[in-house]
Structure formats: C-alpha cells, structure tokens
Amino acid sequence: MMKDDTELVFGYPARVATMLLNDEADIGLIPVAAIPAMKEHYIISDYCIGAVEPVASVCLFSDVPLQEIKEILLDYQSRTSAALLKLLLKEHWHIDPILTGTKEGYQQLIKGSTAGLVIGDRALQQRKTSPYIYDLAEAWQQMTGLPFLFAAWVANKKLPASFIDSFNKATGEGLLHLPEIIEATDFADYDLETYYTRNIDYRLDGSKKQAMKLFLEKIR
C-alpha cells in the first residue's frame, strides 16, 4: 500500500466510529459496539485491540469496594467500554449505580462513592490514584471464559482485495518492531513492555471473533 493511497486521521475511538458512521472516513479502528449501527461493515484486518489477560487500560476506578459504589462516571471516549461496563454491572457484578456521562477532566471527580470508567493512557495514570481497580477485560473473561475484543479495523464499504491485502500487512508491521516502539515512547506511569506484550493482544483469531459475537448479542 502506497502512502499516497491514504490520508491518516487520528481521534479517540468513539470519534473515529462517528466518522465512519457519517461516511467521513472509509476505514477506522473502531469500538466493536459501534458495528451494529453501521449500514454495512467489513472487518478488513487480522489485527485488532483485544485482551486475553487483564487489559490494564480499561478499568473501573473507585475509592470504595464495588458494593458501595453509588455513581459511575462513563468515559466519553469509548462506546465499547461503556457497553461492556453496563453488561458487567448487570450480569457479573449485580449492582445498579447511577451512570453519568462525562467530558474531559472528569477523573478528578472520582472520589467517595463516585467511581469512574477510564480508558487509555488516562487509565494507566489513574492506577496510581485509585485504591480499587476493576479490570473490565478480566471481568469479562471471568464471566464468559473468552478473551475480549475492544476494537477492530472496519471499513464501511467494500474495498479492492489488493488494498485490503496491503493494508493488512501494514497493520501487522508494528508487531515486528515492538522493542523499538517501547524504547521510543516516553511514558513513565506504566511498564510499556508489559502493556504491549501482555495486556494487549493484537491477533484477531477465532476466539476473539466468538467473543465479539457473544458481546454484540448481549448488548443488542
């Protein structure tokens, strides 16, 4: 795939999903919870954002144990994480707190009986602050015995087979250079070697597809 074939746009997961839904982009690494809203969708890569162990960066953070949580602030950046949390609250943890939408900077409101769902780098940083951490991927694995698929490379239209083949090779290229990526990344709040090699699992295999099917059935 030649670089002239593509225009690369960055955004948080929910924003990228909106761009795909509005036909502002052709391909996106999007939360799987957004897939049912698409008129048509095609998963075009053998790579993904998944977890077969605790994911570390998608967690419910709290000052108190689960049963004492009265309210949860939902991260505005990921639809899948919010949908997964709601599912776990109902089917796994069996609690019914108030769920509140958020905007940037909401982490400072996580205190007392108000917990927060936080994803990404902010979650890795929040791990140093909150005494109670509930990993959503780990909870799903305990509930179902399956890994979890957070995001996949999805197109909103059929694309040429030659482009898909080149794109698939390109999305797998980073896995060949993880040591260099880790060394070049300045992030002191968490061990990135653990994160990139254990917390995140990038292979879109049969068990993750099975997990995605089950998850989408449940949230429907």
Outline of the structure:
With 220 residues, the protein is α+β, with helices and mostly antiparallel strands. The chain is built from eight helices and nine strands.
Would you give an account of this structure?
- This protein is of the alpha+beta class and 220 residues long.
- It has two domains: 94 residues, Periplasmic binding protein-like II (D-Maltodextrin-Binding Protein, domain 2, 3-Layer(aba) Sandwich), CATH 3.40.190.10; 87 residues, Periplasmic binding protein-like II (D-Maltodextrin-Binding Protein, domain 2, 3-Layer(aba) Sandwich), CATH 3.40.190.
- It contains eight helices and nine strands.
- The protein has a five-stranded mixed beta sheet with strand order 5-4-6-3-7. Strands 1-8-2-9 form a four-stranded antiparallel beta sheet.
* Helical/strand content category: alpha+beta
Q: What's the level 1 CATH class of the largest domain?
A: Alpha Beta
In total, the number of strands is: 9
Under the CATH scheme, the architecture of the largest domain is: 3-Layer(aba) Sandwich
Count of runs of 4 or more consecutive helical residues: 8
Percent helix range: 25-40%
Number of discrete domains: 2
Helix-strand sequence: HEEEEHEEHEHEHHHEH
First and last CA, distance: 36 Å
Flag low-confidence runs: none
